[in-house]
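In this section we walk through a basic example: taking a raw amino acid sequence and producing a predicted 3D structure, encoded as C-alpha cells. The instruction is simple. Fold the sequence below.
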Amino acid sequence: MTVTLPELKKGFERVGYICDDSTALTVFLTLELKKPLLIEGAPGVGKTEMGKVLADILNTNLIRLQCYEGLDETKALYEWNYQRQLLRIQMNRNLEEEQVKEEDLFSEQYLMERPLLKAIQAEEKPVLLIDEVDKCDPEFEAFLFEVLSDFQVSIPELGTIRANQIPVVALTSNNERELSDGLKRRCLYLCLDFPSLENEVQIIKAKVPETADRLAWDIARVVARLRRQGDLRKKPSIAETIDWARALVTLNHSRLDGKLVGETLNLLLKNRADQELFREEIGRQGIEEVLKQGGGEATR
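The resulting C-alpha cell sequence is shown next.
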C-alpha cells in the first residue's frame, strides 16, 4: 500500500480530486508517518471526499464512522448480539448438561463489530473515515484519541485486541466546536477551503467532462460570487456545483445568463432565506455583471 508522492498526485488526478501540492504533501506524510489526518474546513469543501478518494487510490476498503451528539462506545466500537445470546440460552434450557457458561455467551461469535473495531481487526489496511468529529461529545472524543494513540481496544470479556494493521485514518471537522489539544496532537492537520476559480473549473471538467469550457467558467464565477455573499446560511458546496453542471449539460446549455441562473437556483441554494437573499442582494443584474468578467476560458 506504499505510494510515492508522485504516485499519490497521479492518483488524485485519476479520480478527479483537484488539490494543490501542499495538500498532496500533507496526505503523503500522513501515510508515511502512519498518523491520523485531521481535516477541517467549511461544509462542502471536499473533506469527506478525501477519505473516499484515499480508499480508491490505495485500493482498499473504506470504513466510515459518522459522528453525532450522543455517540458512544457501543455504537462506535462494539456491542453484543443479545438476541443471539438469548436464543442460545433458550436452546440449551432443556438440556441435561450444565447450563451455558458465561464465557460461551461472550465469545467472538456473539460480538457485533462497529466501525472502530472493524478497522482495527481488518486483515488488510483500510481507510477509517471518522466524519464530523466535532459533532460528538467531548467524552467520546477523549475515548477516540486513546484508541487512535494505541490502535488497540480492551473488551472485558475477551481481553485486549490489537490492530492487525494500523489503518489510514482521516477525521473531518466543520469547526462547530474546538477540538481538544489531545486529539490534535495525535494528528497531522489539513485545512481545506473552497477551490479557486481555476481549480473549480478543473473540478467541473474532471467530474462533468462534457461541460463546455465557457459554461464551466460561467458556473465557477457564479458559485464564487454566491460564496462571497457573507449572509448566506449555507454556501454552495463542491458537490452542488457538480450537480448544477450536470443539470445544465442535461438541459443542453453551453453558457449561463441571469434568467437561467434564477430558474435553476434551487440546485445551489437549498433554503428559502438564502434564495430570497440572492434575489434582494444579487439578482439577475448582479449575475449578468459577474458573467461579463473576462479571463480564463470565458471567451472561448
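Looking at the output, two observations stand out. The mean pLDDT is 88. The chain has three domains: 5-74+116-191, 78-113, 197-291. In the next section we compare this with other chains.
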